[in-house]
Request: fold
Amino acid sequence: MTVFDVRCDRCGTELTRPTEAVRFLFHPGDFSLKDDSGLLCRSCWRAAMGWFGVDQPKDQCARCGIAVESSRSVHVLRSGEAAGWQLCPEHAVAFLNQLRTVDPKLSVETLSLAGDWRQMQS
Ligand SMILES: [Zn+2]
Ligand SMILES: [Zn+2]
Reply:
């Protein structure tokens, strides 16, 4: 009855079949604060994976490799998977700002690690 009618959070491509969509979630080191609305088309997910790298080092930024504390980093996981990537604030901002639903855009200063980055008042 309902049409699968969603768009990629990065490139805006219409996703007409569930198999074209990759769901992911992110949280600031506390799973209860997760935002699980992330949705990318397969090619954007591949691009994100290329950006993160295949390794999922613990307590290190997946992008630049600096040490981060679990509660001071953004964790990105593909939905349904237990392991994901951690990003330092700078790279978390870089990643999240690619998403069309993140508005207003974030800066390292405004990045909230309390999980409310989509509800921030300007
Ligand atoms: Zn896309
Ligand atoms: Zn980094």
User: Anything to note?
Assistant: Residues 8, 10-11, 13, 40-41, 43-44 surround zinc ion (ligand 1) (CB under 6 Å). The CA atoms of residues 24 and 78 lie 4 Å apart.
